[in-house]
Automatic annotation (TrEMBL):
It comes from Lentzea jiangxiensis. It holds the Pfam family TfoX_N. It comes from the Bacteria. Residues 14-99 form the TfoX N-terminal domain. This is TfoX N-terminal domain-containing protein.
Amino acid sequence: MAYDEGLAHRLGESLGDLPDLSTKKMFGSLVFMWRGNMLVGALGSDLIARVGPEAQADALAQPGARVFDFTGRPMNGWVVVDGEAVAEDEALEEWIGRCREFVEALPPK
């Protein structure tokens, strides 16, 4: 599954000011790495969001969010957000903020 280049561009625009930001293609998706830790990504037209284990239940209660089980096993601390739910910049920024809050507390790799 190819990633949506429009979503990837929007993510890059929003995250562009972060130091130590990089991208990596994985499993047909494009992920954004911050200080060596996965932060967010584009999987098809959907957003991959790393919110952390403690925030996962709240994240799953948000519109368009579902368990991230790309490999057939749910990934703890990750959710996938339907592309329609992040079509507006404000919604995308809110999800990015959730992810930054978690990843910021992780040690750099």
